[in-house]
Specification:
alpha/beta; 32% helix; 309 residues
């Protein structure tokens, strides 16, 4: 990161709403945004949040957004499946079944030439991926900011460490994974620089995020569940992920599809519209078809980056 903090986001507080208003784009540093959409937090608060894009590079963000100290309130629900340990109900059961298949897809997306050493899962949630990797003989440590998620992991016999320990320890890692985490992080550039510093030379960074340029995102627009305001602070296209990581000297290697995500997100989006989840599954299939045979990207993709040797 540059010494003049070109990419540092300096927030100011809107006194009327007590929300944070971004002052600059974390990718290009430009200071002017234009509104694109208004999206309801259908999961928790029913509040309306604005999505604005940088007029220079087009990066889309939730702006304004709750202050950092207020954000944990928006995760405070047993229905938040990513951090919860429950698998009750058909939809949650399907989620956890697909999640186990996704672990295999994610694990196989890591290149074979990853250096020897310990891995780190940053934003590990309840530790499912950590367990999957450990079961295959690879040493890995999980880091997660939410204490409730760490407690759920502990109940399953999985040790997950507070995120602060990742940022403060002196250990370096051969591979760092972030599965649908980057969109939640307020201090993007600070964390990405820490990730770069924490990687061994030649180390791998794997980032998975939703893509708002996908067919299912275009179909559902403001009802697209992966906007997930205000928990998702940033909304990525492929070029955004690559440009952001390039600012921190990561070399982009390749991308891999996460095709099951289109089904899950589309079914959840249909639920927001009180429509059939079967229709959601059909939209997910169409989204994957367009991603395979047209210019549309997949609903969710993993991006593989490498630190220079």
């Amino acid at each position: 990161m540059s010494e003049d903090n070109t990419f540092h986001v300096e927030p100011s507080i809107n006194q009327e709403t007590s929300n944070v208003e971004l002052q600059s784009c974390p990718i290009c540093g430009h200071t002017t945004f234009r509104q694109k959409l208004e999206v309801i937090d259908r999961f928790y608060s029913q509040e309306i949040f604005k999505l604005k894009e940088c007029i220079q590079c087009g990066f889309l963000c939730t702006n304004p957004r709750p202050k950092n100290e207020k954000l944990p309130e928006y995760y405070n629900s047993s229905e938040y499946v990513s951090h919860g340990g429950s698998s009750k109900g058909i939809f949650k059961s399907i989620y956890h079944l697909v999640q186990s298949i996704n672990f295999r897809i994610k694990y196989r997306s890591i290149p074979s030439d990853v250096p020897h050493g310990t891995w780190a899962d940053y934003g590990a949630g309840t530790g499912g991926f950590v367990k999957y990797v450990k079961d295959r003989g690879q040493e890995i440590k999980g880091f997660e900011p939410e204490s409730a998620a760490r407690q759920n992991a502990a109940q399953s016999g999985i040790t997950i460490n507070p995120t602060e320990e990742f940022l403060t320890n002196s250990e370096q890692y051969a591979c760092i994974t972030m599965w649908h985490v980057l969109e939640h992080i307020s201090n993007l550039n600070e964390v990405l620089q820490a990730l770069y510093d924490k990687l061994l030379p030649g180390g791998i960074l794997a980032i998975a995020v939703p893509n708002y340029k996908s067919f299912d995102a275009k179909w559902y627009r403001t009802n697209w569940a992966a906007f997930d305001v205000p928990r998702h602070l940033w909304h990525f296209s492929e070029k955004d992920v690559i440009a952001l990581c390039a600012n921190h000297h990561f070399q982009f290697r390749y991308k891999k599809a996460l095709p099951f995500d289109a089904f899950y997100i589309s079914m959840l989006s249909e639920g927001y519209r009180n429509k059939s989840k079967i229709k959601g599954a059909a939209i997910g299939a169409i989204s994957n078809f367009y991603a395979k045979f047209s210019a549309y990207p997949y609903s969710s993709q993993t991006y593989i980056f490498q630190k220079s040797i």
